[in-house]
Design the sequence.
């Protein structure tokens, strides 16, 4: 699975990165911080440095593929959704901090 950065003015691909073993399903970026998280069908979440085009961390989910992801750079956390589960990830320690129940 690959990510691509597009120049919307020219409609050209500026940069692309490979990292996921399967399809990229969801992406969330914070442009001032030049960071992004992606979720893939390979059940991983990847933290990206967009300035240096590098994968900083790979976090392993469990069960079904991760369907959505949202990055909150201020709190250094990401929230992922998979099936009926929500998971909160601590990006400073590269670990799942807790499962959120209720869905």
Sequence:
């Amino acid at each position: 699975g690959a990510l691509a950065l597009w120049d919307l003015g020219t409609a050209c691909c500026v940069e692309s990165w490979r990292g996921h073993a399967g399809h990229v399903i969801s992406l969330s970026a914070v442009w001032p911080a030049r960071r992004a998280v992606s979720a893939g069908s390979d059940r991983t979440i990847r933290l990206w440095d967009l300035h240096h085009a590098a994968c900083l961390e790979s976090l392993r989910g469990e069960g079904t593929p991760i369907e959505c992801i949202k990055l909150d750079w201020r709190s250094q956390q990401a929230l992922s959704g998979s099936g009926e589960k929500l998971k909160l990830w601590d990006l400073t320690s590269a670990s799942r901090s807790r499962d959120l129940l209720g869905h």
